[in-house]
Amino acid sequence: MRTSTLRFAAVAAVATFALAGCSSAASEVGAAAPAADPTSLTLALVPSQDQSGLVDTAAPLTDFLSEELGIPVTGVVSKDYQAAVEAMGAGQAQIGFLPSLQLWQASDMYGAEVVLQTERNGNISYPAQFMTNNPDKYCEDTPVERDGKLFCNGADALVGPAGLDSIGAIKGAKVALLGPGSPAGYIYPMLAMQEAGINTDKDLDLLPVTANDASVLAVYNGDAEVGFSFWDARDIVKKDVPDVGQKVVVFALSEEIPNDGVAITQDLSPELRTKIATSLAAFSATPEGSKILTDIYSITKLAPADPTSLDVVARAAQALGLQ
Known about the structure:
single chain, alpha/beta, D-Maltodextrin-Binding Protein, domain 2, 2 domains, 6-stranded mixed β-sheet, 5-stranded mixed β-sheet, 13 strands, 40% helix, globular, PhnD, Phosphate ABC transporter substrate-binding protein, signal
């Protein structure tokens, strides 16, 4: 049950978002009447961190949606990024919190509507970060501390690209790598390494990992010399390993990647899609909602999406043959 504070503060955000959704709803006028909306909904969550407990963490969000929509909303954790897209395509999930590549794929392959994109501390894009436990090899200058974490090669600017001249040294290293669906854990780092002259098929000793926090921990524990993640995934594991910011040094940042967001399947009526998007935006605009979204995905706010921002992700996916 959400608090009365959250309920009250949501009203203004609902009104604001509803205006943004009017043009979308209007475009549906005259379209064939859709099938009746379902009596329950499934929200697909992608494990950007250790998936254990993720559904419980998201429970206040699904409870909020259930109350706002008047039908049960259940959260499920997909095994990986691509599985969430396929679940939406198969009608097994109607709402997806997805990274940018999967937002584009859900729209392109299955006609899903990209309704929201995330803001993190006011930013609508983020870089992939290159991390190491061997700064002497990768840092061309002395690491500097920012907010209790170490950076080098200009990566402390927190805006990509930075430090990419140093990534040629990754050749031959043990590297923690997420699956091909991850923009920050795979797509952008792989592109950067290929552009630096690394044969990513032959020149890397790969350690597959399933989530961003696992990549951080692989570097922290010495299982890999280099890892990739979204900025700044070190914060996810700080509560368990407080010295992670000192032992895992960020030495490069990729070019900026559009933020993740929310897609809704086309099987739902325009009215229900608008109500879902409005409710999610309202939830994110409250202090309680923002905290819960931060706990789930480090999200501070959800805002109306700009689908054209995903074009850069589509081009990157094409370059790596991920379409």
